[in-house]
Automatic annotation (TrEMBL):
Name of one Pfam family that matches: Rhomboid
One term of GO molecular function: serine-type endopeptidase activity
Localization, UniProt: Membrane
Transmembrane region(s): 32-52, 73-93, 99-119, 131-149, 155-172, 184-205, 225-244
Main location: membrane
SUPFAM superfamilies according to UniProt: Rhomboid-like
Any single GO CC term annotated in Swiss-Prot or TrEMBL for this entry: membrane
Topology of this chain in the membrane: Multi-pass membrane protein
Entry's family note: Belongs to the peptidase S54 family.
Organism name: Anabaena cylindrica (strain ATCC 27899 / PCC 7122)
Lineage, uppermost ranks: Bacteria, Bacillati, Cyanobacteriota, Cyanophyceae, Nostocales
Domain Peptidase S54 rhomboid intervals: 89-244
Protein name: Peptidase S54, rhomboid domain protein
Signal peptide interval: none
Keywords associated with the record: Hydrolase, Membrane, Transmembrane, Transmembrane helix
């Protein structure tokens, strides 16, 4: 029995798996992954400065996805006033921008960790353009699914969860048996283990139970992208990789 199997079977406390890297090596630099991580960190730093000045709530409500507002704008544009399409397009502009907003330190670190571990190898396989296209399109599509599933939601939906889920879905489709170098924290001891990549398909959803840790002070509240949107991102990533493999 491998050490990872022994620990997962016998360790009775809540298990926290921290992925570090895969064992796929390449000389190519994952520049888009670097860029995405940098942009997310920069915007989160901006959010922190807004939080200090009590302006974060207004910022998030302007650029986060608010399903009720988008659906109301659509209804007004279709049935009442064609000029309301301007409002529709303005609100839809929040779909890509909301990918770069985060509500807590734990959400940011969780997303960026998965982006780093699974994104860099995927970028080398897909190429920079297709990789960035997958990230943005899947993230936007996940937001649209969330609007459809929760049309009455009045608080902002933010986070790159749907985009990261697409990266994970595409990675699992391409490298289902790859071992991921991970760390298992046990009290004050950190034990290095190798975990199958497919395990993190499950762990991705479990870890989000901890996304409330280190939350920012956003008046009125905010929600992370729900599981319906993330599942849509996951399927989009897997389908995209399947299409690339066929071609």
């Amino acid at each position: 029995m491998q050490i990872s199997e022994f620990l997962i079977t016998n360790y009775q406390s809540p298990i926290i798996m921290i992925p570090i890297s895969d064992n796929i090596y390449s000389w190519k630099k994952p520049m888009i992954t670097y860029w995405l991580i940098g942009v997310n960190l920069f915007i989160f730093s901006w959010q922190l400065s807004l939080d200090i000045n009590d302006k974060l709530g207004s910022f998030v409500n302007t650029w986060g996805i608010i399903p009720e507002q988008i659906n109301t704008a659509f209804t007004n544009a279709i049935f009442y006033n064609s000029a309301a399409w301007i409002v529709v397009f303005w609100r839809l502009f929040s779909l890509p921008l909301s990918l770069f907003l985060h509500s807590s330190f734990s959400q940011l670190l969780g997303n960026l960790l998965f982006l780093w571990v699974f994104g860099k190898s995927l970028e080398r396989i897909l190429g920079q353009q297709r990789y960035l296209l997958l990230y943005l399109v899947a993230g936007i599509f996940a937001g649209m699914i969330q609007i459809f599933m929760e049309p009455k939601l009045t608080i902002p939906v933010i986070g790159a969860n749907g985009a990261i889920a697409s990266i994970l879905g595409a990675y699992i489709m391409k490298f289902p048996k790859t071992k991921i170098d991970s760390i298992l924290p046990l009290i004050i001891v950190f034990i290095p283990v190798e975990i199958p990549a497919f395990f993190y398909l499950f762990w991705w959803f479990v870890q989000q139970l901890f996304y409330g840790i280190g939350s920012l002070n956003i008046p009125g509240g905010v929600t992370n992208l729900g599981y319906w949107g993330q599942f849509a991102g996951l399927v989009t990533g897997a389908a995209f990789m399947r299409m690339v493999q066929r071609r």
